[in-house]
Give the backbone structure.
Amino acid sequence: MITEKISAKNEQGVYGFIVEKTAKKPEIKKAVEKMYGVKVVEVRTMRYAAKPKTRYSKNKIVSGYTNAFKKAIVQVAEGEVIDFYGEI
């Protein structure tokens, strides 16, 4: 996940990910360590609920919801870096 707030924290070793809604903190820690080869110090998670949205079309009003998701903020050990921008 690349946002302005998370990008500013990348220098401190803090990175953001959108994860499966059922993922637990130990699972997220193992996955990040395995995928990026870094030592994870801390994992914080946040769940975002689906929000109602309404859209107006020619004939009718269409109501629905945005997708619910879970965000994980991961802090890696000092001196370790995850290179997100090298692949872009």
